[in-house]
Amino acid sequence: MNVDLNDPADYDCDRAIAARRPILPRRVTTHVRPVGAHSYVLGAVRTDGRALVEGVLGKYVQINIVTLFNLLPDETTQNLHQDGGLWPIPRPHPELVCNALIAIDDFDVENGATNIVPYSHTWHDRPMDQSVETLQVTMRSGSMLVWAGNLWHAAGANNSRDRERLGLFMRHNVSYLRQQDNQVIAVPREVAKQMPKKLQRLLGYFPFGGGIDFRDPIDVLRDGAVINPAAQVARRGWGKL
Ligand SMILES: O=C(O)CCC(=O)C(=O)O
């Protein structure tokens, strides 16, 4: 899909939700872009949701994917799975992922509320088992479920006749690993520039090690100077001509 910078719907979660635009013909998905300055995202990242995510992952956190996840009637259940398998890091490993799922519709047993297996994030020696007992987490619209990526979980089946199950799904990962969707490229600079600093950090504008020529990527986003204006040829050492 092309991004139309003049179309606020590409960045406006409210409008994307109102349109319930599916990208795939049946099942869900995804609008990676409504990461823009919208109350759901900002509310979640500014307040308790963000604190919860940081409580799981520590302070080096970024957005891995943001997706409008619309489970349509007749959808079958997902297999139980753990997150964090994207990177070639053997298990057991520390929590690399933390999910925050905001119910836009009510999530109930019939329309596919999320299944989780309590405490399974601590079962480091146990192979994944699809027959294990699960707990289905029902939520009223506006509630948010936060869970650690090592927890066994799965979207439920939508057995309703005609009710969708729309959620805003924000997967976070530790910011020293790559993102599943490259948010820095996916969100055009002109849009990212307008965002609050916390959200820019969450997108991945993060000075890891040297930043960009020892400048904070947020400063580079603002002025476009990828060569540090303060850089000088040193009189001694490596810089000596
Ligand atoms: O939407 C849900 O209930 C969970 C989705 C999920 O775990 C996934 O897509 O990986």
How would you portray this structure in words?
With 241 residues, the protein is α+β, with helices and mostly antiparallel strands. The protein folds into two domains: 8-187 and 194-206, Sandwich (Jelly Rolls), CATH 2.60.120.620; 209-241, no CATH class. It is built from seven helices and seven strands; from the N terminus they run H-H-H-E-E-E-E-E-E-E-H-H-H-H. A four-stranded antiparallel beta sheet has the order 1-7-2-5. Strands 4-3-6 form a three-stranded antiparallel beta sheet, with no helix packed on it. Helix 2 crosses helix 3. The model is unreliable at 1-5 and 22-40 (pLDDT under 50). The structure holds 2-oxoglutaric acid.
Number of helices: 7
CATH superfamily of the largest domain: q2cbj1_9rhob like domain
Q: Helix/strand/pairing class, anyone?
A: alpha+beta
CATH-derived topology of the largest domain: Jelly Rolls
The helix/strand order is HHHEEEEEEEHHHH
Bound molecules: 2-oxoglutaric acid
CATH-level-2 architecture of the largest domain: Sandwich
- Taken together, the total number of domains comes to 2
| Share of β-strand residues | 15-25%
Characterize the main sheet: 4 strands, antiparallel
Level-1 CATH class name of the largest domain: Mainly Beta
What Rg do the Cα atoms give?
20 Å
Please state the average pLDDT score: 82
**Order of strands across the main sheet:** 1-7-2-5
Spatial gap, N to C terminus: 50 Å
